[in-house]
Amino acid sequence: MSKTSRKILSWLLTMALVLGLMPFGALGGIQAKADNGIGNIEIKAPASQAVSGSAVTYGVGKAAIQKYEFNAEEELGPNGLQLDKKASVPENQEFASYFIVKGTGTIRGNSDTYSLEVAKQGGSYLEFTVTGTANVTIQVSSTSNSNTSAIGLKGSDGQIVENIENITTIKGSTKQTITYENLKADTYQVLAPIIDNIDPGTASADNPNGRGVRIYSVIVEEDTSGGAPAEGNCPVPTSVSAVEEDAAIKITWEGDECQGDGKYEVAVSIDGAEYKKISGSTTTEKTYTYTPAASGNYKFSVYGILGTQKSAEVESTPIDFTYPLAAPVVSATIGDGKVSLSWKEVKEATKYEVRTYLNDQEITEKFSEVTDATTITIDGLTNKTTYSFMVTAVRNTEKVDSEKIEATPKGTEGEFDAVPGMRIINQNGGLPLLITRNAGDITALQNATSGGFAGAGITNTGFLLTTDSYSGDFTVTADIKVNKQVATGTGRGIFLGAFTGAEEKDQLFTIAARNDGNIKCYYSKFTSGAFTNSATGSGTVLEGTFTVTRKDGQYTATYKSKDGSVSSATSSTESTGKVPISDALATGEVYLGIAMSGVEAEITNLKITANGTTIIDAATMTGSYAPEKTPWDEVAAPVLGTPALVAGDSAKIEVPWTMAVGLEGADIFRVIMYDANGKEVAAETINSSATEGSFIFIPEASGNYTFKGIAERENEANKESSEVSYQNFVLPIAKPEIIVMNAGGGSVKVSWKAVPEAASYKVEYKEQGAASLVLAAENITGIEYVIPSLTVGKSYEIIVTAVRGADMAASDATVIEVKDKVERAWEFAWFGTSTSKEANTVEVSPDKETITLNSCTIKADGSINKKGGKFMPFYDGISYYYTEVDPKKENFVLTATFHVDYLNPNVDGQEGFGIVVRDSIGEHGVNSSTFMTNSASIYATKIEGTVNGSKVSLKDGLGTRFTTGLTPELVSANETTGAKSKTDAFIWDPKENIKQGGDYTLTMKKTNTGFHAVLNHDESNEIIMYDNYCEKLTVLDEEKIYVGFAAARGCNVTITDISFTTTDPATDPAAIPEPKETIDPSYRVTSPTTFGSSDYKLVFESNADGKVIIKKGSQTVEEADVLAGEALDYNTTLSTGQNQFEVTFTPTEGFETADGAVLSTYETKTQNFTVTYRDISTSTNTIYVTPDGKSSGKGTKASPLDIYTAVAYAKAGQTIVLKDGTYHMTGKLKVARGVDGTEAENIVMMSEKGGRAILDFAGCRGNFEMWGSYWHVYGIDVCNTDGNIKGIQVAGHHNIFELVNTYKNGDTGLQVSGTSNETKDKWPSYNLILNCISYDNCDPGFNNADGFAAKLTCGEGNVFRGCIAYNNLDDGWDLYSKVESGPIGVVTIENCLAYRNGTILDGSASGDGNGFKLGGDGIAVPHILKNCISYENDANGITSNSDPAIVVINNTSVGNKGTNYSLYGKGSTPLTFVAENNISYKGSSTDSIGLASLYNATNYFDGINTDGEQITDSMFVSVDTSILPDRKEDGSIDMHGLFELGEGAPSKAGATFTETPGSGSELTYEIVEGNQNNSNSGSSDSSDSDDDSSSGNTSSVSSVQKPVEDTGDTTGNWIKDSNGWWYQKADATYPANGWLKIKAEWYLFNGNGYMQTGWQKAADNKWYYLDINNGEMKTGWIQPSVNGEWYFLDLVNGDMRTGWIQVDSKWYFLDLVNGNMRTGWIQTVDGKWYYLYADGSCAINTITPDGYKVDENGAWVR
User: What's the pLDDT at 54?
Assistant: First the structure.
């Protein structure tokens, strides 16, 4: 049945139903549904046909509307044809019995969007037939973001039907909707038609004839009723009028009101043509506005309609309409001495006038008229001069001007600027010669891969020649080193000498370092199409001194190699019997210099003399030059060649490419390989300078592959290549890797890993020594086979062959001695954090009954050498000898005895051994991922717990660890939210910790109940880890668990007496249900027990809901209900002395935690709590402390306090002054939480001015802990804490530690961290560590002691500024996060120094030794390292330590023993590093940069940026590391020139320490001399005070006020001489090297006293802008140059602002490095996206122009 017949039948069925002529049941498979018994009947296709294109009939009773839909997603996707993406759709393929493909279509689209692509120029199309009248809607796009396609709907007459939107072409891959109305009965084609006025053969992205079109949907709504009667009136119009209004015509009329289905329609007649209905004009109103598309005479007709009825038409009077003439929109493209203008055609313009302006004056001779085009090129312009252009559209006498646009023509890059006295000339069509110069050192690059010096002449070559030509005698000489041969060949290389010019046929005499590795003399008179060349020397290392001279008409070319050997040639000897040189070369004027083709070289000591005069001398050159990048719009898109198999290796596909990469092109170019489904499967990238090359891809499966090239440049839209494909790739069959084991009774089990695409396997064997193999089995589809009936005691060779049709690959032969005993498969793997091939090893005895697991190597003296791995709660880094267990079929008992061969003498709690059952296995040999997993372990390592209310830590104890709750989603995200890791110990007694030489028998049982751990066969102390039927350990791998022996970090063990037995879970006892977890009650008062103010807050916290009763003395003062984890605050007034409180808590009976745990007891608990109140005050609010002060002291000089008492009773606003000397501490000095200052009144603790207090904690097991907030600790030392005890722990908020030194402590010098038992809101935040030093700190395990740390449990806003860390055992800084506690807050480190960390001062101990370690566990936190220096550290200078999101800006890293920069992540977490303006110099290893985009012009990794600019010693004031940094008087770091950037250094890169003055000089105090009474007594003895006027409290910290500025000098005079303006004061002196305020304006003077203008970097390392005309310091918004960039200068100080600023209630973002105002989308260091309008203001709480929502802070709402 034809399509038309089917449609007619459908219409007849519809009408039969409507008229009641056919019962619903007669439709068979067709279902019908009636609504209210009338009309609205829905016809659906049978279930087998119910796809997206099914027809739906509706609206029966007025008009029968048949709806047909083609939906590519439904028709072509998994529910439709189920074809692969990019597969062909065959001709005549039907959809919904209505649409049909003609020609061959193609399935296209992204991963979740399907489309049907039809061919260009109508080569294929989608066809449908309309039998009535129809409205049609189609959704289409072009074939890629950059392409343009023609689109149309063609009828059977070959004409393209007009659509409502007047769309004929579409650009880009975004779907567009096109609508057609009132199509008549006909057959139509949706296609990409030929547009006749464009050459179909022209292939480009902008040619619509060169692309097909992608169809996403077609919806046809067809009226097949033939005009069924409608209800209402057919309105009749009268008196129609038409008037022009707002560039449109408004039509109004009188007439009947519309009723029911009655409507009016409007038709138009243009310039007397017949009337045509206006699409969309149907209305019930009596007015309609029409927008004409052109000028003309318009007349309108209005009529009424009702169904098929139509009233008489009533015409308007004609109206003449003039279409508004628009202003041209002009764009400019710059060229060499020219500017090309283009503009969109202005409708009805008859011509265009083009005017050129210079300095706002028209250049009349450049005036042009353009009549038949919309482009023009204005030539004869001066390069590097800015012109303005205006285009005027003309229609008769009417003219409309465009806006003026500016453009600056540009000649050859660096033509006269690169090398003084020389000119760059690039041959027409050749790639540019790129010159970078630093003083007299030149690096030159010419990227040609073809051309050069050949028989046809000189092509594709760049020249660096003298600007003038010379006759007579001359010498050209230079030291040349070839860095890279872009393309090999005899015609390419670097040529030094004389040239008659730079054209193809010009002549030369040169000496050349050719790209074939030879040194040649090239000379020529271009004759008979041949250049003549002759060898003068050769060598594989092209480096030496090249010289060409001409004397008395004879040339000499000389090459002196690096080893001192010399070879030469002359023009007379070379010409003998050959082509002689011409007179032009011999005696004429020639240009002197260098030509290059396809080579990169370093050129030094260039010198050119002519006739005794020095023309060019590198030794006298100053300054530097670097080329600009080629404008992105001038860079050609990438082109991919035809993919092909690599010769000799059919597993690899080679894809050639052409793309400029580097200055002349992309920052990064990558080629992506897609499989047949459009999924990206591989990518290759290049970011070094190149123009062409090829990438090798290794597909993992047979099939069709497509390749696309993508070129990227920062802040520019990507450029993409066309796709190329390799069809029918066949993956070579790999040989199987087999494991052979005894299966018992003479049987051998052979297993292997599946070979990709193998259809089957065959197994063969032979007795060792036999001649031929015996076939055991073939056509095996599994991955194991048991060979039966072999002879026990004999050895056999086993081979497995993988088979795919005729392709076969055999394994290596494996020999096995057949035994009667069953063997279980065991494997070894090392994996996880900190593991290594060297440290993590296994030794297995031949009988497999003794296993030695190692996790460290040992020095000859018995000390540990290299540690491998670590035990952690949610992941391990281990040596693992394991077997696989099917948890559904096997329970087991594994018992073994572990002998501790070696245990790190200085345990750190992460080493150990044990039996570990894992839910998933790590990847062997991979230490860059954590491999988190659920697990059950019996092991020996650090175990912590609470026993009888006290925390106990065993290092290393024996116990269990049960980790559960990890899901694939959590593992993928590197998170542990909701997961648990619980440990328990067999004996909570440190005396039972493991020891080297000890023997320990461990047993792990798996039953249906869970996992049972037994130590030394003592089942009475069994620990059960409940996991009924192994549900908790089969989450990540549902099919198997992994059971084995493990060792980690610093422990080597030998395992014997191994017993592994299995039972069947089906016959084992049923599971014992898991009891609810119990937790011990924790009810406590957390407020301080000593207090210095009568206003006191008692804070009570519990881990359970319940009721608390507080008594003060015998009186009940508070009764309240409390919730678990929420604090109860009770405010009270203390009395002097002891205040007794009784706190009674009754937990809610049956209380359970959120995860179902219950309390171990619900008894009421009562605790007595005593708070001692003592008001220690003096008249000056200064408390005086001495090393021998007494707790009974009064804080005066006559009666000093001890330090413990002073801290215990401190209060806001007080200053505690410590007398100079050593304080031999007797225990921990702890500032309790709640002993706080305020933001306005800090508590200050400082050394007495002129002295220094040293807190020596030797032997007391104590340290300094700051749990309070708003303290300012100034000018003290903390030293000599015992092993594993930090010097200072900062656990409070808003504290300042300034000029504090920490040294010789038993762990980290100063660490910002809280406790993991508390919520993150209590983690320490907003602390400032200012101008502190930490050095020589060392822990007993040689593992943990850093200089500074902010890790594990620290909150937001912590800052280190101006600090120095050196010679600490571990790292200078450590910002470690770990998985179990999650990310810490962002830490900022600025103006800090780290050097020689990793080894302590006396050299007796060594650790890791990173300078700045900025993360851990792959957790993304955008820590900021800015303006810091790191040198001579034992490991990496700056490392992300797997944090993928750190920000490193303006840092210098030099001479570190690992890498200077190591930026990498972990696992699949995306890398989002920000790195700008960093210098790396003389690192021992190559920098490791995980994000290719960071290799750019601002970063000098490995001492060089992508522009080829190199770092040298001369760029630093000093590189003498015997110079030791110290501090300036204001506390800032003084490097004494060491690694300070000097002249010639990059202007914005590297670290330049700025001043970091603290407020120490502002800290004031007044010590009371006498024995002043305590204020508790209510009186004071003023006679004890030196100042009789003192009374009450005074602020201990004076405000830091900016000095009052005067109006400036008004008495001097400005004087101008040949060097500029300077200012003479009244006393005849003049200002120099600084600022001076003159008549209320600030001016900056250089060292010679001359006024500065423009951008200037002042002594404070900040940028300022000084008016270019009068030198005044500018403030506020400025736009200083023609590049149009805006900057904001501080309104008071004038320095250039960066980052977020708020101006006039609007927020703006200024570039963090350059300070320019940003626009468009930006991503800040916290990972959030913001949209900035064209005026720079941030979009707030709105929808951006491109359709994205931003919140009230401006952040994109994802």
Answer: 37
Backbone angles phi, psi at 939, to 5 degrees: -155, 170
Least confident of 165-169, 596-600, 733-737, 1242-1246: 165-169
Structure tokens given for 925: 């040999």
What is the per-residue pLDDT across 1699-1714, written as a single tens digit (0 to 9) for each? 889 887 788 999 887 8
Categorize the per-residue pLDDT at 106 as very low, low, confident or very high, splitting at 50, 70 and 90: confident
Q: Residue 1208 belongs to what H/E stretch?
A: helix 1203-1208
pLDDT bracket for residue 83 (50, 70, 90): low
DSSP 1269: S
Please, are residues 1457 and 1431 in contact by the beta-carbon 8 Å criterion? no
d(CA 1648, CA 1645): 8
Q: What is the pairing mode between strands 1288-1290 and 1264-1266?
A: parallel
What pLDDT score does 1290 carry?
Answer: 96
Quickly tell me which residue has 């070289």 as its tokens. 601
CA-to-CA distance for 1337 and 1343, rounded, in angstroms? 11
Percentage of the chain surpassing pLDDT 90? Answer: 47
Tokens describing residue 1328: 């400032």
Q: 528: which 2 tokens? A: 């008979």
Q: Are strands 703-712 and 724-729 parallel, antiparallel or unpaired?
A: antiparallel
Higher pLDDT, residue 1590 or 346? 346
Contact present, 1477 and 1541 (Cβ < 8 Å) = no
A 10 A CB-CB count for 1312 gives: 33
Q: 544 has which bridge partners?
A: 480, 561
> Distance between CA 1111 and CA 1089 in Å, rounded?
16
Q: Which residue's entry shows tokens 């040198």? A: 1431
Dmax over CA atoms of the chain, in Å, equals 125
Distance CA 453, CA 595 (A): 10
Residue count (the chain): 1758
CA of 1023: how far to CAs of 125, 330, 1032, in Å? 73, 81, 17
d(C-alpha 659, C-alpha 694), whole Å: 11
State the amino acid at position 1122 in one-letter form. Answer: V
Cis amide linkage into residue 956, ω under 30° from 0: yes
**CA 724 to CA 870: how far, in whole Å?**
48
Q: Which of 469-483, 494-508, 1221-1235, 1367-1381 is predicted with the least confidence, judged by mean pLDDT?
A: 494-508
* Amino acid in the structure at residue 333: T
Q: Which has more confidence, 1506 or 525?
A: 1506
**Per-residue pLDDT at 112:** 57
DSSP state of 372: S
Question: What's the rounded Cα separation, in Å, for the pair 1277 and 1333?
Answer: 9
CA 1260 to chain centre: 47
Sequence-distant (6+) residues with CB within 8 A of 131 are 4, 7, 8, 11, 185, 222, 224
List beta partners, residue 1651: 1645
Hey, what are 1526's tokens? 């110290």
Contact between 708 and 696 (Cβ < 8 Å): no
The backbone torsions φ and ψ at residue 74, rounded to the nearest 5 degrees and listed phi first, read -80, -45
For the entire predicted model, the pTM comes to: 0.48
Report strand pairing: 1078-1079 vs 1158-1159. parallel
Report the distance separating Cα 1303 and Cα 1368, nearest Å.
9
Please give the Cα distance from 738 to 422 (Å, whole number): 69
Count of H helices and E strands in the chain? 6, 144
H-helix or E-strand containing 535?
A: strand 530-538
Ramachandran quadrant class, 158 (left: phi over 0; alpha: psi -120 to 50; beta: rest): left
pLDDT band at 144 (very low <50, low <70, confident <90, very high): confident
- Dist. CA 10–CA 57, nearest whole Å: 9
Task: Return the active site residues.
Answer: 1413
DSSP structural state of residue 199: -
Among 43-57, 246-260, 1610-1624, the range of highest mean pLDDT = 246-260
Residue 1690 token pair: 């501080």
